[in-house]
């Protein structure tokens, strides 16, 4: 197996942890504390996230048709506690207010989270949770995508 080559690192704002970039031939990996956040070979689930929701319109209340959220590996953040508010009740209510009726919030996660599904429902969304593979070929790990629709 070809070894990973360390390319560079940067401090994560707010918590001082180190984000590291690696390369193995034409493949790249971003890691924090040894946990892989993104990989250029395994991006099928991120593409599915984009395909399952419509493009964003202008920024104002009830202006968005869709909001795609792919932050910090999902509701159980790994790198920044400051991201937790996005997945908390207040963050979900802010997203709900920003969506038009029948608007979609699509959320990518490294894995399932029943408490998050419950918070989506409590915020007023109709929720559909599904699993997708990391690679378009159907190989690789499974990731979770929530499609949360705002009622009218």
Write the layout of secondary structure elements.
Layout lengths: L4 E7 L6 E7 L2 E6 L2 E5 L4 H8 L12 E6 L14 H4 L1 H10 E11 L4 H9 L2 E9 L8 E9 L2
Parallel strand pairs: 5-6
Antiparallel strand pairs: 1-2, 2-3, 3-4, 6-8, 7-8
* CATH-defined topology of the largest domain: Rossmann fold
Order of helices and strands: EEEEHEHHEHEE
Instruction: Give the distance, in angstroms, between the N- and C-terminal Cα atoms.
Output: 53 Å
Please state the average pLDDT score: 83
Low-confidence region ranges: none
CATH superfamily of the largest domain: Vaccinia Virus protein VP39
Widest β-sheet, arrangement of strands: 1-2-3-4
Work out the count of structural domains.
2
Number of helices: 4
Rg calculated over all Cα atoms: 17 Å
Largest sheet: 4 strands, antiparallel
User: Total strand count, please?
Assistant: 8
CATH class of the largest domain: Alpha Beta
Morphology: globular
Describe the structure in your own words:
The protein is α+β, with helices and mostly antiparallel strands and 152 residues long. It folds into two domains: 1-40; 42-150, 3-Layer(aba) Sandwich (Rossmann fold). Helices cover 20% and strands 39% of the residues. The protein has four helices and eight strands, in the order ββββαβααβαββ. A hairpin with a 2-residue loop joins β3 (27-32) and β4 (35-39). The mean pLDDT is 83.
Descriptors:
152 residues, alpha+beta, Rossmann fold, 2 domains, four-stranded antiparallel beta sheet, four-stranded mixed beta sheet, 4 helices, 8 strands, 20% helix, globular
């Amino acid at each position: 197996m070809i070894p990973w080559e360390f390319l560079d690192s940067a401090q994560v704002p707010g918590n001082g942890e180190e984000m590291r970039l690696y390369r193995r031939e034409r493949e790249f990996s971003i890691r924090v504390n040894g946990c892989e956040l993104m990989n250029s070979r395994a991006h099928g689930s991120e593409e599915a996230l984009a395909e399952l929701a419509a493009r964003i319109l202008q920024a104002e209340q009830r202006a968005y048709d869709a909001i795609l959220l792919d932050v910090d590996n999902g509701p159980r953040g790994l790198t920044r506690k400051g991201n937790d508010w996005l997945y908390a009740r207040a963050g979900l209510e802010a997203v709900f207010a920003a969506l038009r009726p029948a608007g979609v919030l699509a959320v990518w996660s490294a894995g399932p989270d029943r408490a998050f599904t419950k918070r989506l429902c409590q915020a007023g969304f109709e929720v559909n949770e599904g699993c997708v593979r990391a690679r378009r070929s159907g190989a690789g790990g499974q990731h979770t995508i929530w499609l949360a629709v705002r009622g009218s």
